[in-house]
Specification:
Elements: E1 3-12, E2 15-25, E3 30-35, H1 41-48, E4 56-61, E5 64-65, E6 74-77, H2 89-99, H3 104-117, H4 133-145, E7 151-154, H5 163-178, E8 182-186, H6 190-196, E9 199-204, E10 207-213, H7 214-221, E11 225-229, H8 234-239, E12 243-249, E13 252-257, H9 263-271, E14 278-282, H10 286-294
Parallel strand pairs: 3-8, 3-9, 6-7, 7-8
Antiparallel strand pairs: 1-2, 1-4, 4-5, 9-10, 11-13, 11-14, 12-13
Helix pairs in contact: 2-4
The structure holds adenosine-5'-triphosphate (ATP).
Length: 299
C-alpha cells in the first residue's frame, strides 16, 4: 500500500498545525516522522488514519481516499498509552485480535510468537495493571499489530523503553518490514530513526524542512565529521586548513571540517611519521543534522 500526502494542511481555528505537507511512503518502507514537541506529528498520524479531517489537500492509499480502504489493513499505536488494567495480558491480545477479525489458531500462533519475541512469557497470565510501564507498552504494541496490518503507524513507540527493550522493538520492526508491512513511526530518539528508516520527514511547527531518503539528507551535509585518535595536540589540529572546530571526546578528537576535501591533507600532515590509532571521516549523525535544521531561534 502506497500512502501519498499532497499539500496537506490542518488548521485549528486560526492556528495552522500542519502546513502544506507532502510525502509518499511506498510499500515495505520504514518511514520516520521527526520533529520537536508540537511539530504536528500526531496530527499528521490522525489525519492519515482518518481520525480527523485535513483542512486542505489530499491523503490517499494506492490512489484511493482513506474512507474507501479496509480499516483492518491499518494498525495504530497512539501516543496516549492505555490497555485494560484488569484484563490479563493474553486475554487482552485475544480481545484486540478478535476485534480486528482474527480467530482460532491463527490468532493463538501470533500471540505466542509475539509474547515470546517481547519476552513477556512470564507475564502472560498477569493482569495488565500489575506490569511495569515498559511491559504494558510492549503489550499495547503487540495489540497494535496482532491482526497483521499492511500499514502500521507507531506514535513514539520507543519512549519509556529501556535499551534492551528498545532493541527488541527495533528487531520487531525490522521483522515486520521483512514480512512486507509498511511502517510509519515518530521518535525523539534520533538513533532509532537513523538505524531503522529508509526515508524520513522533518517537521518544524507544521512545516516540512526535509522529506526524502536518509542518505540524501546526510549527503546534503557531506562527510564533515572527522574522528581522530592521535598524539598530535589539539592546538595544532585547530590550526589546520579547513578545520572549523575541534572537540575533545574522551581520548579522541572530533573535528568539524568545512568540507570533505580537507580530510586528505589533514591525514597527510598528521600521519607524517606518526602512528594514528583512529582516523575516521563520516557523515554527521541524524541527531546533529536534526539540531542544525530544527534548532536555533529563528523567531
Ligand atoms: N484539538 C486541537 N485543538 C487545537 N490545537 C491543537 C489540537 N490538537 C493539536 N493542536 C496543536 O497542534 C500542534 C501540533 O500538535 P501535535 O500533537 O500534532 O504535535 P506532535 O508533533 O505530535 O508533538 P509531541 O512530540 O509533543 O507529541 C500543537 O501546537 C498542538 O497544541
Amino acid at each position: 500500500m502506497t500512502l501519498a500526502l499532497k499539500h496537506v494542511v490542518k488548521k485549528y481555528k486560526d492556528f495552522t498545525a500542519v502546513n502544506d505537507l507532502n510525502f509518499t511512503i511506498d510499500k515495505g518502507e520504514i518511514f520516520g516522522l521527526i520533529g520537536q514537541n508540537g511539530a504536528g506529528k500526531t496530527t499528521t498520524f490522525r489525519m492519515i488514519l482518518d481520525l480527523q479531517e485535513q483542512t486542505e489537500g489530499s491523503i490517499t492509499w494506492d490512489g484511493s481516499p482513506i474512507k474507501k480502504i479496509n480499516r483492518d489493513w491499518l494498525g495504530y499505536l497512539p501516543e496516549e498509552r492505555g490497555i485494560f488494567p484488569q484484563m490479563k495480558v493474553e486475554d487482552q491480545l485475544i480481545f484486540f485480535g478478535k476485534l480486528r477479525g482474527m480467530n482460532g489458531n491463527e490468532l493463538k500462533k501470533e500471540i505466542d510468537f509475539w509474547i515470546n519475541r517481547f519476552e513477556l512469557e512470564e507475564k502472560r497470565h498477569d493482569k495488565a495493571e500489575t506490569l511495569s510501564k515498559g511491559n504494558q507498552q510492549k503489550v499495547q504494541l503487540i495489540a497494535s499489530f496482532i491482526h497483521k496490518p499492511k500499514f502500521l503507524i507507531l506514535d513514539e513507540p520507543f519512549s519509556g523503553l529501556d535499551p534492551v527493550n528498545r532493541d527488541l522493538l527495533k528487531n520487531a520492526i525490522l521483522l515486520l518490514k521483512e514480512k512486507g508491512v509498511t511502517i510509519l513511526f515518530s521518535s525523539h530518539q534520533m538513533d532509532n530513526v537513523e538505524e531503522l528508516c529508509d526515508h524520513l520527514c522533518i517537521l518544524k511547527r507544521g512545516v516540512s524542512l526535509f522529506s526524502g531518503s536518509l542518505l540524501d539528507l546526510k549527503k546534503q551535509y557531506g562527510k564533515t565529521k572527522l574522528s581522530i585518535r592521535t598524539t598530535v595536540p589539539k592546538s595544532e589540529l585547530e590550526k589546520m586548513a579547513g578545520v572549523k572546530e575541534v572537540k575533545v571526546m574522551r581520548d579522541e578528537y572530533v573535528l568539524t571540517l568545512m568540507n570533505e576535501s580537507f580530510a586528505k591533507p589533514i591525514f597527510e600532515l598528521i600521519s607524517n611519521g606518526q602512528y594514528i590509532e583512529k582516523f575516521s571521516l563520516d557523515y554527521l549523525s541524524l541527531d546533529e543534522i536534526f539540531k542544525d535544521k530544527v534548532g536555533g531561534n529563528d523567531e
